[in-house]
Amino acid sequence: MQSDIDDLAGSINERRAILFVGAGVSMVVGLPSWQDLIDHMIGELKLEEDDLGRNLGHPILAEYYRLRHGSIGPLRSWMDREWKVSEERVKDSVIHRHIVDLDFPLIYTTNYDRNLEVAFTIQGKPFTKIANERDLTFATSEHTQIVKFHGDFDDDASLVLTETDYFARLNFDSPVDVKFRADAMSRTLLFVGYSMQDLNIRLLLHRVWESWSRSAYERNRPRSYVFLPRAGRAQEAVLNSWGITVLTSEMSDPGAALADFLTRLTERVGQLRSGDEA
Asked: Which domain of life is it from (predicted)?
């Protein structure tokens, strides 16, 4: 994996890389899982006796929640209260510290929480948050842009939570989607904290691959990577066919594996920034 880390570190050093952050990064500092959200909705909607409830997935349950309550406002409020960890937990997170230190010009995240913003604030690094069209008008390239791809707790309308929200995003034609396509075409992508089972993310990657495959300049496509603590042969083969290199670990603990990977990557980028090519 060292040659891949060297190549990835080179792109980061040249500020030609985008980081894409998934739920796994927030779960390592104690954020609830999707199953916790599902269990909460089942309880509030009084579906405990409905054995199908636990198999529906959070988008369908959130859709039903919206139909029952008229909005997801109360659910968003609960998530905002519960999906929050102390600043101390974020401060102690090796993973979050490395994310800030790597100094990506662009970070996209499907997480609703504010952990990335907190990490940047703790380390005194300025950033620009983008969650909607309005934010785009104020965005600058001077600081790291944290793009909340599935929305932000500060703006209910931006949240991608219900099944309708996910279906609407499958068109990938919102201003934030257009921004991502433009950003992704010219930069190396690194995905962390994902199982790569999310249909939206897989379709997003497929769309990027499709755009390049129709181009006469496909050979110039930047390499992209995903870190997975474990990856099956089928999953790795499919991702490789889309131009995504899968990086794995022999560590059994996913959080420790990601921390180790980011530590090695940060060290290599540090060597390049100091002029040490060894």
From this structure: Bacteria
